[in-house]
């Protein structure tokens, strides 16, 4: 993608009323536009209090601070001006329109950060982390987004890439000396180096999986017979009175969703209609939706009423492969000991009093494998990073197999080249316009 030559502007602060509102301009015309609005500019990186005026008739628009950041030492790597006025939507609109009249173009979502990436101010993982930091919903996510933003993830990927480049140089130079090629390629150290790189990709894969969970959270579907206490459990876990709870079986028909955190791990709780044979078309639709949610859940909480023999088993149709926690509810009535029961492999709780629920929460964290969410080195990651790492792993293993079995140097070199391309897609050395559009299109305007 070419580095754009035009100048962009946008309101960088959130819409609505606020003490301060900021218009940001980036590009070659930024300084000229600022001069037209505010007269003589302050020295770089100094904040000067000034009046912003319409250039044609010098009408005051607002007054506030003006700051100049000159290329290349700015967020985007271009000249940037910040006009920090009062945070009212109309006054900011007028200020922005004035900038646009002076030759700036309205920035697209994420365009400032996209320029920062295109100008080499940050790699793609860092650019993604900017959006993730803004969207972070809890302290652990903020910390992990900061780690990525500071380049920790990108640096680890780069280290593997450097190792790969060394390997490629060695193998490709061996290819240039055909008569000694076999000697070169049968060197056992080559295989060892490939194994070491595989190991590092393996570690990155595990961290990335954690990073995705930390960013996107896990889906937890609460299912079971009508009246087992599913809606009560949702209310107990969120600490809010979200779902209607009644003694009438079949109360919940719509799927209800709520978000909570377990030690920084985002959990999307899903309360569903009780599953049973029903003639009622509305309830049938609720049950159909409950099944659909089960299909997409990471973990299923199957709730049983401890007072009754459960007759859901024949009708529930659990998806294969999804972990299920069996939970016996209403122990405040049956007097069972709360917590995990090793013999029955189930958890005894009361959705009414909250007893035993902490053991379920622990089990959820263990299943998600996130005991180390609080790790200081944990970074946020996305699905595309995982896909790229898997592809790199596959190519690297192909390279190793080729070398071990056929010693075909050309093929091995080609697989290593592909490994490198897959990894460099993560940091953005190799990208498509489509990918960039997808990443930056999800940003807010003004960032
Ligand atoms: N005593 C007691 N009653 C419960 C408990 N959980 C749910 N209930 C009651 O069981 C009935 C059905 O609960 P609800 O949450 O609507 O069940 P759902 O149909 O599975 O969503 C309501 O009358 C609740 O008050 C519990 O742990 N203890
Ligand atoms: Mg319910």
SSE layout:
Elements: E1 8-11, E2 18-26, H1 30-38, E3 48-53, E4 60-69, E5 80-87, H2 89-101, E6 105-106, H3 111-118, H4 124-135, H5 139-149, H6 152-176, H7 181-185, H8 188-216, E7 218-224, H9 230-238, E8 256-262, E9 265-271, H10 281-296, E10 299-305, H11 313-316, E11 324-329, H12 331-334, E12 339-341, E13 346-348, H13 357-368, H14 383-405, H15 409-427, H16 433-441
Helix pairs in contact: 4-5, 6-8, 6-15, 8-14, 14-15
Characterize the structure shown:
With 447 residues, the protein is of the alpha/beta class. Helix content is 47%, strand content 18%. It folds into three domains: 8-123, Probable tRNA modification gtpase trme, domain 1 (Gyrase A, domain 2, 2-Layer Sandwich), CATH 3.30.1360; 134-213 and 382-427, Four Helix Bundle (Hemerythrin (Met), subunit A) (Up-down Bundle), CATH 1.20.120; 217-368, P-loop containing nucleotide triphosphate hydrolases (Rossmann fold, 3-Layer(aba) Sandwich), CATH 3.40.50. It has a seven-stranded mixed beta sheet, sandwiched between helices. Strands 3-4-5-2-1-6 form a six-stranded mixed beta sheet, with helices on one face. A hairpin with a 2-residue loop joins strand 8 and strand 9 (265-271). The longest helix is centred in the middle third of the chain and has 29 residues, at 188-216. Magnesium ion binds next to helix 9.
């Amino acid at each position: 993608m070419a580095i754009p030559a035009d100048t962009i502007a946008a309101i960088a602060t959130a819409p609505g009323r606020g003490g301060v509102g900021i218009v940001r301009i980036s590009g070659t015309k930024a300084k000229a536009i600022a001069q037209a609005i505010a007269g003589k500019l302050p020295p770089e990186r100094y904040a000067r209090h000034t009046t912003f005026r319409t250039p044609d008739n010098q009408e005051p628009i607002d007054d506030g601070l003006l700051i100049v950041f000159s290329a290349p030492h700015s967020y985007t790597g271009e000249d940037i001006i910040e006009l920090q006025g009062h945070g009212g939507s109309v006054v900011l609109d007028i200020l922005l329109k004035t900038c646009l009249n002076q030759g700036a173009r309205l920035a697209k979502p994420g365009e400032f950060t996209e320029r920062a990436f295109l100008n080499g101010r940050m790699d793609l993982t860092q650019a993604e982390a900017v959006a993730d930091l803004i969207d972070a919903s809890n302290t652990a996510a903020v910390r992990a987004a900061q780690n990525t933003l500071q380049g920790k993830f990108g640096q680890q990927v780069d280290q593997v890439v450097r190792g790969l480049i060394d390997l490629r140089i060695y193998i490709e130079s061996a290819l240039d000396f055909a008569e000694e090629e076999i000697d070169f390629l049968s060197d056992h150290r080559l295989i060892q180096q490939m194994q070491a790189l595989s190991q590092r990709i393996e570690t990155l894969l595990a961290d990335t999986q954690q990073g995705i969970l930390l960013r996107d959270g896990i889906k937890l579907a609460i299912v079971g017979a009508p009246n087992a206490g599913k809606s009560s459990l949702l209310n107990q876990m969120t600490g809010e009175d979200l779902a209607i709870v009644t003694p009438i079986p079949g109360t919940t028909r719509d799927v209800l969703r709520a978000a909570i955190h377990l030690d920084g791990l985002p959990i999307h709780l899903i309360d569903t209609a009780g599953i049973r044979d029903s003639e009622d078309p509305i309830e049938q639709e609720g049950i159909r939706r409950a099944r659909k949610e089960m299909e997409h859940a990471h973990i299923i909480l199957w709730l049983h009423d401890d007072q009754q023999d459960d007759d859901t088993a024949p009708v529930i149709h659990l998806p294969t492969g999804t972990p299920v926690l069996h939970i016996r509810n209403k122990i405040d009535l049956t007097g069972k000991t709360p917590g995990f029961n090793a013999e029955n492999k189930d958890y005894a709780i009361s959705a009414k009093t909250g007893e035993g629920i902490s053991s379920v929460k622990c089990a959820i964290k263990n299943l998600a494998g996130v005991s180390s969410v609080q790790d200081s080195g944990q970074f946020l990651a996305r699905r595309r990073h995982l896909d790229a790492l898997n592809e790199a792993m596959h190519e690297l293993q192909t390279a190793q197999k080729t070398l071990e079995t056929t010693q075909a140097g050309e093929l091995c070199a080609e697989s290593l080249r592909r490994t490198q391309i897959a990894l460099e897609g993560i940091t953005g050395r190799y990208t498509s316009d489509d990918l960039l559009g997808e990443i930056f299109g999800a940003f807010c305007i003004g960032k």
